[in-house]
Structure to design on (984 residues):
């Protein structure tokens, strides 16, 4: 028998039997391997119906057995186990069976194959392993690394980048730019035949592990299929030539009470395809972050790039369940327990929101609990199956074995904390910083969404009571932190779910606040970190009544000169780039102030700057790209009685045959006269003078009023704007 | 819309308004609560606890006693709605099911499944009717292709009370 | 995944809306003071929430009283300072 070791790139079902694995070996080869792999799902329920299901399955090439397995809430349950050695056939067997017998309970029937593989072999995606081979058949596989290692050996993946010379939605591309390592060249698209021959040859020669594209999901791969037919040149971008590209259609669907849009997707086998325009996470933390998520969640790189972190955390929970012999129900079975009116009012709250003291404050420290909700779940063993079962003598669930959710989150929390600690010690110019930051961010996102995804509704094991227990504990801990701070002489200016803003005369340096932080950790048991000490911070009031404070809406400058802001126009995606740029520039002017008293002195500079910006706009000196407004279409165009600006823009595009689906954003400019808007994708250049400068100035005024809010009492309205 | 006079064990009443009888159902729950225990199943996040408390306060000082006999559970998917109904005991008290169909329009649930679950729900409602009156509130269908579910529920009702809201909707002013 | 119990902020808004006929009939200058009462309550949303009362407006009234007492205390202090300055 031969032996090989390397990184596990991909796992998927073979169409006949078992699995296909791709290994990137230590001697830089890419091996396509096969492995026997049987998969099982379970069925439970009314005995007479189960018996009929047994009879139905008897001739379906599966192995049937009566056994008992653990349901997380119901304990041991009598089940019918259905096993097939062809994982690719599982989903059809399951869907046929569940259509025949919809009233039965199904478990483990829709677990992604990569998770099953990982649970069984204890390896992990992008991890190193050693295999014993019999030709292409894996007879034994052994993990060499753990997904929780801080600094795994980098995988030498080959990346090929394909970018069209323009947005295919607006204009037909004329060439495809190809980038590989340090080389870059273009393939013209006019002659489809020549292009196909060229691309095919390049793919064969370069043999990339990752194809990174722009518009690959929505344009390139669908086009390749068409061009293949047209020219008769067979181009299969998969490394596994036995497989077709897996495509998923674009779709608008109604879920969670609103319309959600999902773009088309193209997945490859044996190599990865990521479309940077269609990968929500990719924009956040790049390839390194996506790989980290694949590493810890067990979902493939292509999946994690496109899916939200919620899918990742759900996968992790499934993995924990499988590893602990708990069946994963296809349909969640737990429902809320009965509550009286009073109990409902007590339970149904979110995090603690402590209204800020309006105005400008100097020397304010912001301290944040680190990953508060997950930390609470782990420390207090809050899990759907443990909640409501507290030991009355200790008042906590500690006597119980660790629940599924804390067990899933614990290693995630620990790794993130370790990464953060390492990063805080590293020199910012250390070359490892970028990679570690991306990984930490990727893990942070998994933790951020875990509360929502592990709570209830679509979570397989979710129970709303565990959600409520976590928020109740978080409110209690915040109040404890406030008490500790006040006992130590601090004023608590604002609190928002998991962060506090505190102040004490004479306390200006980070080090001054360490005793406070230690005391809070001591009391609450949850780690806390210093976000920074503000030279000054402004808590804003409501636009409707200046006496009413608004939570989580502020801006300020830290001691090191950096600016932080929340809830203002700068943070909102629907604000134009121009307004955001000016608001940021204004903040930078104000950031030069060292104290609140200094601040007011900068305001005349701000006003002058804003006047200058408006002058530039009216003189036509602002590029139109910066004035694009982005709004989502909330429904189909027919659904509008009086069309919103976004709908009017969408109508213009519709006239040219371009359809905008509900849930998608439309980009447009505000214009004088006519319909008041011009859709950006029309590609038409707007003549000067047609821009609705008045409207843009109004938008800017609003944003500047926000920033000057703390000092409005000192200036009259006329002076301000 | 005076519903209490028409309530009777064995009778299924459907209330249909553009907002699933939001105010009417809270008034009903408060009135029923003053008379005895009530079970509320909320299928569309329509329950308004504070509103009920305020309504109770207008009739009695001792709102806690009444509040403690208003029992509610919420369903966030149609599967949960079915499980809720299946696990609700038959008690000699009224049942109010708010916005029964809200979760049945989710595209993630195939139409045949939605139908199967609704049939099961309606069977459970028949069981509950044997011990108490049942009031179901409905809003206009969220998805046209599934409007037939709405008709299915109405067909099972002994009485369907419809209230049209005037075209002019007063806008709730907010300070934020 | 909506919450069922509306936030204190929303509850206060609803109460305020219900009182709009009352407010409307007040003189403009009195309306400003009236709004100030609700603004005072809004500075203590967290406390009103934590009170977990079936009728949050009762706690809101307490918050309004609290703010008023603070204002009086500040005025008292200013008065004392003025009086001691003037002998």
């Amino acid at each position: 028998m031969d032996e090989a070791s390397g990184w596990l790139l991909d796992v998927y079902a073979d169409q006949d039997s078992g699995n296909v694995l791709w290994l990137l070996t230590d001697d830089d080869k890419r091996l396509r391997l096969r492995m026997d792999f049987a998969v099982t799902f379970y069925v439970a329920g009314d005995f007479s119906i189960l018996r009929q299901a047994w009879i139905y399955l008897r001739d379906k090439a599966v192995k049937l057995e009566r056994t008992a397995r653990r349901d997380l809430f119901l304990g041991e349950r009598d089940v019918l186990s259905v096993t097939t050695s062809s994982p690719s056939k599982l989903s059809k067997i399951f869907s046929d069976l569940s259509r025949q017998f919809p009233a039965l309970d199904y478990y483990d029937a829709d677990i992604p194959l990569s998770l099953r593989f990982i649970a069984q072999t204890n390896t992990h995606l992008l991890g190193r392993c050693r295999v014993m081979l019999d030709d292409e058949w894996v007879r034994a596989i052994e993990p060499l690394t753990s997904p929780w290692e801080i600094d795994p050996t980098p995988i030498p993946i080959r990346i090929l980048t394909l970018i069209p010379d323009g947005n295919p939605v607006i204009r037909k591309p004329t060439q495809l730019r190809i980038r590989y390592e340090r080389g870059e060249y273009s393939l013209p698209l006019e002659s489809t035949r020549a292009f196909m021959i060229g691309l095919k040859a390049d793919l064969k020669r370069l043999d990339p592990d990752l194809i990174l594209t722009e518009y690959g999901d929505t344009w390139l791969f669908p086009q390749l299929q068409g061009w293949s037919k047209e020219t008769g040149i067979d181009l299969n971008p998969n490394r596994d030539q036995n497989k077709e590209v897996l495509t998923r259609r674009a779709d608008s669907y109604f879920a969670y009470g609103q319309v959600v849009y999902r773009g088309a997707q193209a997945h490859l086998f044996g190599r990865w395809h990521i479309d940077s325009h269609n990968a929500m996470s990719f924009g956040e933390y790049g390839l390194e972050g996506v790989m980290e998520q694949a590493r810890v969640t067990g979902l493939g790189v292509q999946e994690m790039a496109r899916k939200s972190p919620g899918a990742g955390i759900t996968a992790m929970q499934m993995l924990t369940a499988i590893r602990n012999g708990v069946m994963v129900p296809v349909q969640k079975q737990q429902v809320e327990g009965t509550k009286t009116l009073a109990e409902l009012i007590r339970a149904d709250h979110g995090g603690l929101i402590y209204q800020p003291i309006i105005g400008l404050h100097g020397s304010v420290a912001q301290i944040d609990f680190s990953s508060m909700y997950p930390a609470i779940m782990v420390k207090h063993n809050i899990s759907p199956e443990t909640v409501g079962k507290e030991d009355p003598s200790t008042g906590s669930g500690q006597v119980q074995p660790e629940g599924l959710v804390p067990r899933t989150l614990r290693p995630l929390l620990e790794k993130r904390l370790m990464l953060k600690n390492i990063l805080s010690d590293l020199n910012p110019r250390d070359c490892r910083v970028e990679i570690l930051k991306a990984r930490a961010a990727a893990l942070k996102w998994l933790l951020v969404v875990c509360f929502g995804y592990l709570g209830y509704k679509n979570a397989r094991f979710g129970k709303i009571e565990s959600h409520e227990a976590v928020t109740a504990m978080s409110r209690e801990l915040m109040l404890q932190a406030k008490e500790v701070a006040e006992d130590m002489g601090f004023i608590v200016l604002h609190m928002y779910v998991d962060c506090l803003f505190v102040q004490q005369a004479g306390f200006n340096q980070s080090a001054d606040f360490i005793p406070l932080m230690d005391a809070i950790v001591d009391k609450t048991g949850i780690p806390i970190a210093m976000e920074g000490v503000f030279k000054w911070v402004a808590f804003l009031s409501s636009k409707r009544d200046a006496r009413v404070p608004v939570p989580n809406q502020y801006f300020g400058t830290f001691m090191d000169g950096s600016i932080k802001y929340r809830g203002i126009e700068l943070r909102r995606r629907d604000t134009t780039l121009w307004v955001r740029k000016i608001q940021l520039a204004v903040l930078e002017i104000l950031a030069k102030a060292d104290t609140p008293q200094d601040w007011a002195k900068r305001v005349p500079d701000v006003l002058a700057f804003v006047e200058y910006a408006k002058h530039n706009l009216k003189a036509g000196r602002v590029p139109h790209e910066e004035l694009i407004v982005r709004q989502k279409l909330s429904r189909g165009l027919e659904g509008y009685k009086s069309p919103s600006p976004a709908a009017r823009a969408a109508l213009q595009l519709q006239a040219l045959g371009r359809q905008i689906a509900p849930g998608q954003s439309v980009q447009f400019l505000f214009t004088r006269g006519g319909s008041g808007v011009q859709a950006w994708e029309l590609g038409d250049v707007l003549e000067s003078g047609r821009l609705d400068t008045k409207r843009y100035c109004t938008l800017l005024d609003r944003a500047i009023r926000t920033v000057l809010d703390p000092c409005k009492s000192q200036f009259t309205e006329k002076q301000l704007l | 819309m005076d519903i209490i006079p028409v309530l009777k064990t064995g009778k299924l009443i459907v209330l249909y308004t553009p907002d699933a009888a939001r105010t009417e159902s809270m008034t009903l729950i408060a009135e029923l609560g003053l008379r005895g225990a009530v079970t509320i199943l909320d299928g569309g996040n329509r329950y308004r606890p504070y509103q009920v408390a305020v309504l109770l306060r207008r009739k009695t000082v001792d709102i806690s006693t009444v509040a403690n006999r208003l029992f509610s559970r919420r369903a966030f998917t149609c599967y949960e709605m079915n499980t809720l109904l299946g696990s609700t005991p038959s008690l000699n008290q009224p049942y109010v099911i708010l916005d029964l169909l809200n979760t049945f329009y989710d595209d993630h649930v195939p139409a045949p499944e939605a139908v199967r679950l609704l049939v099961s729900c309606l069977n459970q409602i028949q069981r509950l009717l044997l011990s108490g009156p049942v009031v179901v509130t409905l809003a206009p269908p969220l998805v046209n292709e599934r409007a037939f579910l709405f008709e299915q529920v109405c067909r099972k009702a002994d009485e369907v009370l419809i209230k049209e809201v005037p075209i002019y909707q007063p806008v709730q002013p907010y300070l934020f | 995944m909506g919450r069922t119990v509306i936030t204190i902020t929303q509850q206060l808004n609803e109460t305020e809306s219900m009182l709009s006929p009352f407010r409307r009939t007040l003189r403009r200058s009195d309306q400003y003071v009236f709004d100030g009462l609700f603004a005072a309550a809004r500075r203590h949303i967290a406390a009103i929430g934590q009170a977990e009362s079936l009728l949050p407006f009762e706690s809101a009234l307490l918050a309004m009283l609290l703010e008023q007492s603070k204002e009086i205390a500040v005025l008292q202090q200013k008065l004392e300072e003025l009086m001691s300055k003037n002998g």
